[in-house]
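Work through this protein:
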Amino acid sequence: MNLLKDPFISTNHGKASLKEILTTDTDYQLQYFFDEIQLAMLQMLASLTTVVLKPTVTELKGYLDSGITAEQYDTTLSKIETKWFEDDSFMQSKSSGEKGFQTASVSKLISGIEFGDSKDASGLFSDADKVSIACSDCIHVLNYNLHMNISGQYFGRYGATGIRGGGVLTTLISGKSLKETILFNTVAIDFYDSLSVLNESVSDLLMWADPPQGKLYSASEIGLSRGLFALAYHIKLGKQEGNCVCDICGAESGVTYRTLDYLKYNGKYGSVKTDKGKENGAGLWLHPYTPRSVSEKGVFSLVPIGLTWSSWQDLASLVIEQDINDNSNAIPSYIVTQFRENFKVPINLIIGGNITKKASVVSRVYDLYSMPSTLSKNTRRISEVIDTGLRQKEALSHAFNKLFVTGYDKNFVSRIKEQAMQRFVANAQQIIQQILLDVDRKEAADLRTEAKAALNKEAKAVFKTVQRKYQHDLPLFKALVKGRSALYRTK
């Protein structure tokens, strides 16, 4: 099976090839059991399309306006070495020796979390104990997902961190169809060249054809194709002959994968922070789907932190460059910038990724926001809505802080507050998503007033629920009465 030629993508019309999706008008939709894999597949398909088409901005606009013919696809495909995309080769670099390999179950690849047996090395996804088999089509997106998400800092000598870093956010553009979504996230090589800083010695050979050497992998020497499929491990997939029903896509397969063997590379990418917080001079590679944070310590992929984090809190910085705090600012992903600068149509932004604690996935992010084509003219309005939500969140947090004077165990009180804040943040996201639909039709003051009213009502509802639950616990109830008073005074 070849990933550029043959059907391997699970869709509502059965297995489809990349060529079929790009060159026909069939309404394909991805069908996988896990949103982690849906997100990974979108990235992988857009990356494969980038490698095949290598379009300029003008050519990409032409493909979106007029479509791609089968002949055009075949012509561009004839210019690349397709042998590197065969199923026994793709993203599987070979080690010079056989010693040192470790073995992991395919279940470790669903969330893209690192390998390990400790309690801090578990993924959080549905029916994890039932995920043990992958088919010959799905194993490749699992391997891709691993390399785009791994963080090896908690696994000693066997761990490695990928080119993006671990637990980072992904932002993609959603189109009206799967074909349009893939093309919107295809990288225009001329625009990418204008934003990236590469040396003359840059290599664009795929890493399973030419594994990186040395102790440090400089971002300025990694070309676009090489970086899109960057590896952190030598990989041997545990292929077994025999029929199975895949736990990832549900299809029957004549080949079964239960394990893979891995051996980490000797060097490090600029995505790995040193003890002093800096990235040791390697630089963070400009990954198309990764927003970044910039500070005096360096440039790193943007990572969501904490159970009460939700995508709306950083939405403004994910679509426009914005200060995070006094010491750092956030830069949208390359693909968002490419879209904003070159396509004057409404933006539908997909935000996805893992929220991690140590090496555990404690929550998932998979959200969609719709915003107008006049986004650059409405950044103040978006910021007003987001800032209103953040102020209301802070007010609710201060109200719950009254609980800590009861003398009860701090962990017990913290859980009460944390659960309530999680509920507010989740519900606030739906409120903000709805308000942003009107961002090009209403003035900033009107949006702010609407957001304030709706979010204040939600905060009070959340607080009232907690107060009602503990009305028979006198110390907690008294503390909540004080907190309620403070919350209701919030302007």
